[in-house]
């Protein structure tokens, strides 16, 4: 027997769709789509305000398409800025900011490379100074939810580590200035989910345009399942996520439900995205909504929680690349 609709609505559905404000802080254009593309598309479609802050333009990224490999440095940054704008159109996200303005912080390159010593790179930035730019955004947007990487940056890239530090520092400074973000999350992948997906990938690999597969160890943020507090089912937005990832063509090759970065190693494209709540009351059972338990959101009684739909690249219409991007 199913429950009466009113009961299931109360128990199973978040009460409101409006007045939800989600802030994501990422290091480079493409990180947002890989980590949170389905989440961003879903919340944007549901009427939440989704704000992305990207810290660098990814000027040190390795370019995949041979025809674009002449792009380096500032030219690559400018190109990736356009890729980011296209990805946001695919996700239906209109509020995109570049930390401190375009080009303020340069890509630091992989850990241990000479690029780490560039005084203009994010890795060399003063955390408090960089965080001050983000505090402005937080005080303007007043997000209830912040999503970023863990203290290892998910996999140790200096810009990801620094994005983490800046995000957490900004959250502290914003709290002192009058807006405490109720829930802060790190991007995660449960180990069992990663292992299962890679087992499937092993079987599918012969039919894919990638010669080799990555391994679980190559996926940022993989942790034991019990640490994962939240799973956002974005399967209805799989096409939007794939379109957003494709928009980052210099960095990503997509063959759904897999993709590869410049190393050419296939990995799973997750459409359920996972999180670990690190600030806020840890739920006893795994949540399905980043906003679960948030009070003060205006009730939208007419909503039944329908996910709506979002199309592929370009469907969000003109003017979708708001903010500074
Ligand atoms: Zn990155």
Topology record:
Layout: H1 5-12, E1 21-26, H2 31-45, E2 49-54, H3 73-91, E3 95-98, H4 127-141, E4 145-148, H5 158-176, E5 183-190, H6 191-204, E6 212-213, E7 222-223, E8 230-233, H7 238-247, E9 253-255, E10 258-260, E11 265-268, E12 272-279
Parallel strand pairs: 1-2, 1-4, 2-3, 4-5, 5-7, 6-11
Antiparallel strand pairs: 5-12, 8-12, 9-10, 10-11
Helix pairs in contact: 2-7, 3-7, 4-5
Bound molecules: zinc ion (ZN).
Explain what the structure shows.
The protein has 325 residues and is of the alpha/beta class. It is built from seven helices and twelve strands. Strands 1, 2, 3, 4, 5, 7, 8 and 12 form an eight-stranded mixed beta sheet that branches. Strands 6-11-10-9 form a four-stranded mixed beta sheet. Helix 2 (31-45) packs across helix 7 and helix 4 (127-141) packs across helix 5 (158-176). The radius of gyration is 19 Å and the shape is globular. The N and C termini lie far apart (50 Å). The site of zinc ion has 5 residues, from loops. Its EC number is 3.5.1.103. Catalyzes the deacetylation of 1D-myo-inositol 2-acetamido-2-deoxy-alpha-D-glucopyranoside (GlcNAc-Ins) in the mycothiol biosynthesis pathway. InterPro entries: GlcNAc_PI_deacetylase-related, LmbE-like_dom_sf, Mycothiol_biosynthesis_MshB.
Helix content: 25-40%
Main sheet record: 8 strands, mixed
Bound molecules: zinc ion
- Provide the low-confidence segments as ranges: 1-15, 301-322
Strand content: 15-25%
The number of strands is 12
Report the average pLDDT across residues. Answer: 89
General form: globular
Organism: Streptomyces echinoruber
GO molecular function: N-acetylglucosaminylinositol deacetylase activity; zinc ion binding
Protein name: 1D-myo-inositol 2-acetamido-2-deoxy-alpha-D-glucopyranoside deacetylase
Family: Belongs to the MshB deacetylase family.
């Amino acid at each position: 027997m199913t429950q009466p609709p009113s009961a299931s609505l109360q128990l199973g559905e978040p009460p409101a769709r409006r007045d939800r404000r989600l802030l994501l802080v990422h290091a480079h254009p493409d990180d947002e789509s890989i980590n949170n593309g389905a989440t961003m598309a879903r919340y944007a479609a549901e009427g939440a305000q989704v704000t992305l802050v990207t810290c660098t333009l990814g000027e040190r990224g390795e370019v995949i398409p041979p025809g674009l490999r002449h792009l380096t440095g500032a030219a690559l940054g400018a190109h990736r800025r356009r890729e980011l704008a296209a990805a946001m159109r695919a996700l239906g996200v209109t509020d995109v900011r570049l930390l401190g303005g375009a080009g303020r912080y340069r890509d630091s390159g992989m850990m241990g490379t000479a690029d780490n010593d560039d005084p203009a790179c994010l890795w060399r930035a003063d955390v408090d100074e960089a965080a001050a730019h983000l505090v402005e955004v937080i005080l303007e947007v007043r997000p209830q939810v912040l999503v970023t990487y863990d203290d290892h940056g998910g996999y140790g890239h200096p810009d990801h580590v620094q994005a983490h530090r800046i995000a957490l520092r900004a959250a502290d400074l914003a709290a002192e200035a009058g807006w405490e973000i109720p829930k802060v999350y790190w991007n995660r992948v449960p180990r069992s989910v990663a292992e299962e997906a890679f087992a499937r990938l092993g079987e599918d690999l012969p039919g894919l345009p990638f010669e080799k597969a990555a391994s679980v160890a190559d996926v940022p943020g993989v942790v034991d399942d019990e640490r994962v507090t939240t799973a956002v089912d974005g399967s209805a937005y799989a096409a939007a996520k794939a379109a957003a990832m494709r928009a980052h063509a210099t960095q990503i090759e997509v063959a759904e439900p897999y993709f590869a970065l410049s190393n050419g190693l296939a990995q799973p494209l997750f459409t359920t995205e996972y999180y670990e709540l690190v600030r806020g009351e840890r739920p006893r059972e795994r949540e399905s909504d980043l906003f679960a338990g948030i009070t003060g959101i205006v009730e939208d009684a007419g909503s039944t929680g329908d996910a709506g739909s979002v199309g592929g690249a370009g469907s969000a219409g003109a003017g979708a690349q708001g903010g500074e991007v």
